[in-house]
Backbone:
């Protein structure tokens, strides 16, 4: 039996999957990826382990149970916006140093467990109000951390903030995420397309070098 593809992260990955037992993959980009696999007769199982509100340290607390225990062949990590947001709505900041330390431990344990491939998505904000423009002060260093760790750990990397910022310039920020953070159906579609492009690129590279 083929090992599953596991997605883990915060509300953007969760996408309501814990609220509806009939939709264990939620109603977002993870579900769209699974539907694509089904359409092309790709039988790999897809598992969603997103939990709304999670920060990097929260992923650490459940990493073995919700990620490593599943023995994924491909693990996608999408976390970071709550590490930014809590600074502004709750005065509960996560320093860049602590964020990097948590994220590094996640990757170290994942590599040590033998997971074959990892994909990292950077967090994004498409500001819909002036207050969110200030978030870049906190978000951008954390985006840089993820990009650097992706190189260090030979993980796939999806520059999602750049992709969605470009889409927002064309379609307007609310079309991507009506609150600047949580994707609309169109936003989830763009995330799914970016993920599938990265997965296809990595699979093609692997087949050429294998």
Residues:
């Amino acid at each position: 039996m083929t090992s599953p593809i596991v997605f883990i992260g915060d509300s953007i990955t969760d996408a309501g999957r814990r609220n509806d037992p009939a939709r264990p993959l939620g109603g977002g980009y993870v579900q769209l990826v699974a539907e694509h696999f089904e359409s092309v007769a790709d039988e790999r199982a897809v598992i969603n382990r997103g939990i709304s509100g999670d920060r990097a340290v929260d992923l650490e607390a459940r990493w073995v149970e919700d990620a490593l225990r599943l023995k994924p062949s491909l693990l996608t990590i999408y976390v970071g916006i709550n590490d930014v947001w809590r600074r502004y709505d709750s005065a509960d900041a996560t320093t860049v140093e602590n964020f990097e330390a948590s994220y590094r431990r996640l990757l170290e344990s994942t590599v040590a467990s033998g997971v074959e491939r990892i994909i990292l998505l950077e967090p994004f904000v498409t500001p819909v109000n002036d207050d969110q423009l200030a978030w870049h002060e906190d978000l951008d260093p954390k985006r840089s951390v993820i990009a650097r760790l992706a190189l260090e750990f030979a993980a796939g990397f999806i520059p999602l903030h750049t992709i969605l910022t470009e889409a927002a310039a064309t379609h307007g920020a609310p079309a991507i995420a009506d609150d600047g953070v949580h994707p609309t159906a169109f936003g989830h579609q763009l995330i799914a397309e970016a993920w599938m492009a990265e997965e296809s690129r990595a699979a093609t590279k692997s087949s050429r070098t294998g």
